[in-house]
Design brief:
about 10% strand, 16 helices, three-stranded antiparallel β-sheet, six-stranded mixed β-sheet, alpha+beta, 9 strands
């Protein structure tokens, strides 16, 4: 940690760009010094009790005021306060990669993050969860650095939520992940955080986007590269998550039993899924052409294919097929489950094939299936049919005109 305070000859101030009450500000951090305090007031700075620093709005004009007022003072700029190469002043809303901003933290703060990562791995959380949770905690610590950990309370979490999570348009799901990360982090910290008062927002209920059976065929036909076609078809035909496709090995595919083994999936669970009979010829053609060694879909040097590449392929194929819906690889999985339900497959079997831990997760597909909806008549259709009854005088009903017109 950079020691803030007076130097033998010159005073020292650390400049940090931070978010305060929804706006970006320049923070001036220094040990108590009456001369520096008077200069801060003279330049228009105000005191922030929350961040324990003097601050003013981050604009080129205000930055120039600081430079003029604090001549002869050593100004230390942190990585969160990048310089504009064109005019020598600082950007108002910098967006620096988190790895670079992480370097501005003290060794003590860095150790907190390392300990948290070790704690999560000790609890056997997936690497995806470890990455997500530790990133949120790092952003949180960067937001309040160098505030002492023992002074952080629930109010600071609320402020971070308002000025970072909401302002950056994070989803409700991400907000729930942040609260989950904070609950685990706070269990091992001497802070003022009351874990019992940390409440996750209610989950969103959004119906999944589903492709029709015709759109699935159009999508497959529009994918000309046989490797890409095999990848997208496998996701739909077996109802895989994209991570499951990328981790799928050739040894996990049993053609004789028409069965695929999904290993160490979400929740660290193995499961079996069906190998489509119609997919086998395409798969054989692909394997003969590309000859992968270990993984079903391989990238360069035999490494697993990247998720970004699969998404890019899917986007191009949707455009070529004329599909206007917002389609992701998970849309193919949603379509797999919905089509099974429409074909009369029992919900319990669908749950097993998808690898859902709870039946409530699978129940969402009962809201999108069209099997029963097709048997329901709109009341508008019923009214029109009644008015067109031979016993009625109005035979030619036109919704675009007056209903009494014949």
């Amino acid at each position: 940690m950079v020691k803030l305070g007076l130097m033998p000859v010159q005073s020292q101030i650390t400049l940090k760009n931070f978010n305060h009450r929804g706006e970006q500000h320049i923070g001036l951090f220094f040990d108590y010094n009456n001369n520096l305090i008077q200069k801060a007031k003279k330049s228009g700075c105000r005191w922030s009790q929350t961040h324990k620093c003097w601050y003013l709005k981050n604009t080129p004009e205000n930055y120039s005021k600081i430079i003029d007022e604090f001549k002869g003072t050593v100004l230390i700029k942190t990585p969160t306060f990048p310089e504009n190469e064109h005019n020598g002043v600082y950007k108002t809303l910098p967006r620096i990669p988190i790895k670079k901003r992480y370097q501005s933290l003290s060794d003590d703060y860095k150790q907190l993050i390392k300990d948290y990562v070790a704690f999560l791995r000790g609890r056997r959380y997936s690497e995806s969860t470890v990455s997500t949770y530790s990133t949120f905690i790092t952003e949180f610590l960067l937001f309040y650095y160098p505030k002492p950990i023992n002074e952080i309370s629930n109010r600071h979490i609320e402020q971070f939520n308002q000025t970072f999570i909401l302002k950056n348009n994070y989803s409700i799901s991400s907000q729930r992940q942040f609260i989950g990360a904070m609950k685990l982090w706070a269990t091992n910290q001497r802070s003022q955080i009351e874990i019992g008062q940390l409440v996750r927002p209610r989950k969103e209920f959004k119906l999944p986007v589903v492709l029709s059976k015709e759109e699935i065929i159009d999508l497959i036909r529009a994918t000309k590269n046989i490797k890409h076609r095999a990848a997208l078809t496998m996701i739909y035909a077996a109802g895989l998550r994209i991570s499951e496709l990328l981790a799928l090995k050739l040894t996990d595919i049993d053609i004789d039993r028409k069965q695929i083994t999904i290993r160490n999936a979400k929740g660290r669970k193995d499961r079996y899924v069906v190998l489509s009979q119609s997919f086998i010829p395409l798969m054989a053609n692909y394997l003969q052409t590309y000859k992968p060694d270990t993984y079903f879909i391989e990238g360069q040097s035999g490494l697993p294919y990247s998720a970004e590449s699969i998404r890019a392929v899917l986007k191009r194929s949707c455009k070529a097929a004329g599909i206007k819906k917002q389609v992701t690889p998970h849309t193919l999985r949603h379509s797999f489950a919905t089509h099974l339900l429409e074909n009369g497959t029992d919900l319990r079997y669908i749950q097993e094939l998808l690898g859902h831990a709870k039946p409530e997760t699978t129940m969402i597909y009962t809201h999108v299936t069209k099997k029963d909806l097709l048997n329901i008549q709109s009341p508008l259709d019923q009214i029109v049919q009644e008015l067109k009854n031979p016993d009625k005088s109005n035979q030619n009903i036109r919704l675009s005109g007056n209903i009494n017109e014949i």
